[in-house]
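Just curious: can you write whichever protein you like plus the matching structure tokens?

***
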Amino acid sequence: MAPNFTNLLHGFFEANLDEVLILLTVISLASLIVFIAIIVKLNRIAKNYAVLMKGTEGKKLEEMLIEYFKSVRQAMSEVAAVKERVNVLERDMLLAVQKVHIKKYNAFDEVGGNLSFSIALLNGENSGVIITGIYGREESRVYLKPVVNGDSSYILSPEEKEVLERAKSKAGFWDSKSEF
């Protein structure tokens, strides 16, 4: 059986020698192209490895990764601590004076110079105080009126109402008509 198969194969190659050679040439060229592609990829991997290992001074990759993950965990805990501190500061900031408006005016016709004033000092929740100084020829008075959630339980003068509304709306620091 073996001699017949060998003879049959030998006969096939003799009859189709040109086609067999062309097929072998195509297979060789395809192998060469695949080989070149593999070498290009291997060079990229080698460059990346060289960059990765640069400055390692003989450390093992495993040790480097462990150090890296430790530093990442430490950075994450520091970020969490900073986030918590920012949250505390944001809550505290709501209680700090954030909104201020001042108005100077003449409380009495016979006194000039815009010597009377009203100032609203409000926190982030629109709570705080209104301070009013009334200047007259014979005497001066200062009033302090509390403000809770944008409203006062005391009767407010028109100037006090104005500074309160302007402070709530963050409409600047002082009335543009006033001079300091």
In short: Strands lie at 99-105, 116-122, 128-135, 140-147. Residues 99-168 form one domain. The chain has a mean pLDDT of 88.
